[in-house]
Amino acid sequence: MNTTQPDPIPHLIAAVTELGFALRDLDASRPALVPNAPLAQDGAEYADEIEALLSLIVKRLRGEDPK
Fold first, then answer.
1. In a domain, 52, yes or no
2. 41 inside domain
3. Cα gap 10→32, rounded to integer Å
4. Between the N and C ends of the chain, which has fewer C-beta atoms within 10 Å?
5. SS percent in the chain: helix, strand, coil, step 5
6. Closest by Cα among 42, 48, 59 to 24
């Protein structure tokens, strides 16, 4: 008896991509009250790190060389 499981990779790629868009939208919607404050700088660095991590995850899921 054969059971066929759907390939989860396309769904994972879509989910990670959507997460990236959601985080970018969330970052863009934050008020820029103190754009040069240390917390704002930390937040920007954090957003950059998340974007890089999401990019790496998508590349790995697609089987691309992450370098």
1. yes
2. yes
3. 36
4. N
5. 70, 0, 30
6. 48
Indicate if the alpha-carbon torsion angle 59, 60, 64, 67 is positive or negative. Answer: positive
Is the pLDDT score of 36 beyond 80? no
d(CA 11, CA 14): 5
24 part of a folded domain: no
- Please tell me what DSSP assigns to residue 66: -
**What pLDDT score was predicted for residue 7?**
82
The total of structural domains in the chain comes to 1
> Whole domain around residue 50: which residue ranges?
10-18+37-62
- Determine, yes or no, domain membership for 14: yes
- How far apart are alpha carbons 51 and 21 in whole angstroms? 9
